[in-house]
Each structure stands twice: as structure tokens, then as C-alpha cells.
Design goal:
By secondary structure, the chain is of the alpha/beta class. The protein has two domains: 252 residues, Type I PLP-dependent aspartate aminotransferase-like (Major domain) (Aspartate Aminotransferase, domain 2, 3-Layer(aba) Sandwich), CATH 3.40.640.10; 108 residues, Aspartate Aminotransferase, domain 1 (Alpha-Beta Complex). 40% of the residues lie in helices and 14% in strands. The chain contains 13 helices and 13 strands. The radius of gyration is 23 Å and the shape is globular.
């Protein structure tokens, strides 16, 4: 449909009504019926996030000289999360627009450092080695940066096979990575082993903790078994973590963190050869509203360690309830041993497409995993009030019967599945 600019403009009350009608046709992110996108910490925390966002929405992070308080907020947020991740005195980083930008910056820094330290390569292109379950943004960033990507297999628990990663390294490899956790399965890769391998081979080790970075430290403090992943591990070079997920800030705000300034220096872009003078940006974006950063800063100050620990306690309790309910349905099984609140559920006997379709008809948004065929669930506190209804509907649909489809049909339908 072609739309042209209105000749005379439309009054805001009419526009607002139209936009409210448009929004009514989208899924409600706080209704507890989405498996993704809904990171909710309660009405009061949301109010803090929204008011802080609006207070700084017109400020621009591109200009720290004009808006120095944004630079102070960024430094404090980076410092708080570096400390949470056991970073040393030299640990540093930047705020970005989201996990995609954070990971791309890690790839850019790793590539530029490899050029500076190791020099040019004799043939081929530089490459990165990552698990099969790593986020596609690694491939997106690699394509933009002129890098090749080698994806290696997973073990029976859907974690990276570090032996396969070691075999895939060649003279052009610059970076290894692991996920905390992976989006498809919720598995946490063996970061200690990956970091040790990277250190032994003189490679960059990136940890993608975009989903779990603001949950794992508190879950561990509460006594849950979470594999170590942060700067406490020798060899971990950089970590990405999203504050607009379980940090409970408004989108889009993520962090890219480095073990020291020596590695972080390769992230920035600088240009001198134009009339206006030196142009430099630490991130991919230039102009950035200060709203998301202010939202993150305010929520982190508002919640503190005790607030995040309390929310994580509730989240892990919800995870335990969910796992118990799934275990009581013999046709379903959780893939691997996911330690946080991202999980994938499969069945050898059910038609997962049919199950997803019938759940959707009952008002649930279902997120499927293509290989192996499963449905994925990122549990958040929005699901506390809907878990009973969700599991009731699952049981009722399964009891009615959804048999596995013809095996010849499934491979074609798998690749109809989208990530989001």
C-alpha cells in the first residue's frame, strides 16, 4: 500500500486513537502469553524505566561534551556491570543499542586487533569459530566485516563441543565464542574450556551473555548451579549483555564489555580528513537518544543488588515450577539441562506444528526451534500469572491427540520456522 504525506496534517487526538487501534492488534508484551520479548519486573519498575527514559529522550549520546551527564551515566552503568562480572580495575566498555551491535563491535575489535598484532594474512580471510547454536548476528557481523564463520557441533546437552572447536581453528582464526545461554536451547556453553582454548591459541574469546548476563550472577548467588562465564575466567576477552532484557530497562540498551582498555581500543571509529575536524564514535551508531541509557541507569539504581536478587529468586522459582509441569507430561521432554529460564521442549511422538497451531488458537504465541524440532520458551515474570493456564492448555491439547506428522513432510516445514 502506497502512503503519501497528509496534505494538511492530522490532529493528535485522531492519530492517537488510530495508533491505539493499531497497537490493539499486536501481542501484549506484559500479558504473559509471549515466549520472547516480554521482560517485566512489575509496574513500579516499569514506571521508573519509562519516566527516566522520557527525561533524557531528547539528549544525544553522540555528543558527550554537550550532554556530559549521559557520559557519566554510561560510565556508571558499565562500571556496575563490570563489577558484577568480576572485571578487574581495567575492565571497561560501552553502551550500545542492543545485543546485535554489541556482538558486532566485539567482532570489529577482534578483527582490528588481529590486523594490528598479527599483521596481514597470506591467503583466504580471517574467520571466527562459534557453536552451531550461537546467534545469527555473528554471521551478520562477519559478513559486514569480511570475516568467515565456522560453526561447530553441539554435545548431547546442546552445548558447544570444544574438541570440534579446537579442530576447526586454523591460522586465520581470530575469535572463539560461546553463549550464556543459547537462544534455541537455553544451554550454557563451557566458557572455561573455550577461554582456555582461546588463551592457548592466542585468540579472542567472546561471551554472548545478552540473554543471561543479568540473571546468571544472581542465580549463582542464590545457590543455583550456573556454569562460570565472566571475567573471573582467565582468557575471557569480551562480554555482551543486554540491559533491556533481564536488566529491565526499556529498549534498546546493551553493553559490550572488555577485560581491559588494550582490547577495547580497537572498537572505536575515528576519521580526520574532512573540514569539520576529527570525527570519532565508540559504537556503530552516531546519534543515539539518551532515553534507553537513562532508563537502564535509573532501573539499576532503583533495584540495586537486592532488587535484582529478589526478581531472580522469583524467576528461578517459576523455572522450577515450569520444569515440574513439563516433567508431568510424559509426551514432552526438555532438551539438555538449561540452567536459567530459557528452555526448549520437544516430543518424539507429537506433531509439534499441530500443537503450536492449537496453542496459538488459544491465544498463546509459540516460538519453534527448527533442529531438533521443539518449542522454545524464555520464561519471564510476566508468566507467573499465566503458567497454570498455559500448562492446562498444553495438557488438554495433548490429551485430545496431536500425532507426529509424516516424516517426509517435517524437513520442509522446519525451514518455515523463523527466529522471532
Amino acid at each position: 500500500m502506497k502512503t503519501e504525506l497528509a496534505p494538511q496534517g492530522i490532529a493528535w487526538p485522531a492519530l492517537r486513537e488510530r495508533m491505539q487501534e493499531m497497537k490493539a492488534h499486536d501481542w501484549d508484551v506484559h500479558a504473559g502469553r509471549l515466549p520472547l520479548h516480554a521482560y517485566y519486573a512489575g509496574a513500579e519498575t516499569m514506571r521508573v524505566a519509562e519516566e527516566a527514559f522520557m527525561m533524557f529522550v531528547h539528549q544525544n549520546q553522540l555528543a558527550p561534551g554537550t550532554f556530559p551527564n549521559l557520559a557519566c551515566m554510561e560510565a556508571e552503568v558499565v562500571s556496575m556491570v563490570c563489577a558484577l562480572f568480576h572485571g578487574g580495575d581495567g575492565a571497561t566498555g560501552s553502551a550500545t543499542s542492543g545485543g546485535s551491535e554489541s556482538i558486532m563491535l566485539a567482532l570489529k575489535a577482534a578483527r582490528d586487533r588481529a590486523v594490528a598484532v598479527r599483521g596481514e594474512i597470506s591467503s583466504g580471510r580471517r574467520n571466527i569459530v562459534i557453536p552451531a547454536s550461537a546467534h545469527p548476528v555473528f554471521d551478520k557481523g562477519a559478513r559486514l566485516l569480511g570475516l568467515d564463520v565456522v560453526r561447530v557441533g553441539l554435545d548431547a546437552a546442546f552445548r558447544c563441543r570444544v574438541d570440534a572447536m579446537a579442530d576447526a581453528i586454523d591460522e586465520n582464526t581470530i575469535l572463539l565464542a560461546g553463549s550464556v545461554p543459547s537462544l534455541p536451547f537455553g544451554s550454557v556453553d563451557p566458557i572455561e574450556d573455550i577461554a582456555q582454548l582461546a588463551s592457548a591459541r592466542g585468540l579472542w574469546c567472546h561471551v554472548d551473555a545478552c540473554i543471561g548476563g543479568m540473571v546468571a550472577p544472581f542465580a549463582s548467588e542464590l545457590g543455583h548451579t550456573v556454569p562460570p562465564f565472566d571475567f573471573h575466567i582467565p582468557g575471557v576477552t569480551s562480554i555482551s549483555t543486554d540491559l533491556h532484557k533481564f536488566g529491565y530497562a526499556l529498549k534498546g540498551i546493551s553493553l559490550i564489555l572488555y577485560t581491559d582498555a588494550d582490547h577495547a581500543q580497537y572498537q572505536a571509529f575515528a576519521f580526520q580528513n574532512w573540514p569539520k575536524g576529527r570525527y570519532e564514535t565508540p559504537t556503530l551508531l552516531g546519534s543515539r537518544s539518551g532515553g534507553p541509557l537513562a532508563s537502564a541507569w535509573a532501573v539499576m539504581q532503583y533495584l540495586g543488588r537486592a532488587g535484582y536478587a529478589g526478581l531472580t529468586r522469583r524467576l528461578m522459582r517459576l523455572r522450577g515450577d515450569y520444569l515440574e509441569r513439563i516433567a508431568d507430561i510424559p509426551e514432552l521432554t526438555v532438551l539438555g539441562t538449561p540452567p536459567l529460564s530459557v528452555l526448549a521442549v520437544a516430543s518424539p511422538s507429537l506433531d509439534m506444528f499441530g500443537l503450536a497451531s492449537e496453542m496459538t488458537a488459544r491465544g498463546w504465541f509459540m516460538s519453534l526451534v527448527a533442529e531438533p524440532l521443539a518449542f522454545q520458551q524464555t520464561l519471564t515474570l510476566a508468566h507467573e500469572r499465566t503458567l497454570d493456564e498455559y500448562c492446562h492448555d498444553l495438557r488438554e491439547i495433548i490429551k485430545k491427540g496431536t500425532q507426529a506428522p509424516d516424516s517426509a513432510v517435517v524437513p520442509t516445514r522446519r525451514w518455515e520456522i523463523t527466529t522471532y
